[in-house]
């Protein structure tokens, strides 16, 4: 597949180096997105776990919410 680029008003085929750079950048962005999603999931799981443990200690939902700042 040939990719095209507009280079100062001139359309041309992208070089192998430009294509490699784009592919590398896309891969890095996908990795960063996956890491961010995993971090958000880990945080949500930790909050849920904390709520369950605090409830097991006898705290009310209002007390738990006050402690967790939610």
Could you characterize the architecture of this molecule?
70% of the residues lie in helices and 11% in strands. It has a two-stranded antiparallel ribbon with strand order 1-2. The protein has two helices and two strands; from the N terminus they run ββαα. It has helices spanning 16-56, 61-68, and strands at residues 4-7, 10-13. With 70 residues, the chain is mostly helical. It has one domain. The protein is rod-shaped. The termini are far apart.
Fold blueprint:
Blueprint: E1 4-7, E2 10-13, H1 16-56, H2 61-68
Antiparallel strand pairs: 1-2
Q: What integer is the average pLDDT?
A: 95
Structural class: mainly alpha
- Principal-axis shape equals rod-shaped
Gyration radius, to the nearest Å?
A: 24 Å
**Secondary-structure element pattern, one letter each:** EEHH
Highlighted features:
70 residues, mainly alpha, two-stranded antiparallel ribbon, 2 helices
């Amino acid at each position: 597949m040939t990719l095209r680029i507009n280079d100062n008003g001139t359309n041309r085929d992208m070089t192998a180096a430009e294509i490699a750079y784009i592919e590398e950048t896309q891969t890095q962005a996908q990795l960063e997105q996956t890491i961010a999603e995993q971090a958000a999931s880990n945080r949500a799981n930790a909050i849920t776990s904390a709520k369950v443990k605090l409830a097991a200690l006898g705290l009310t939902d209002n007390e738990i919410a006050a402690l967790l700042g939610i």
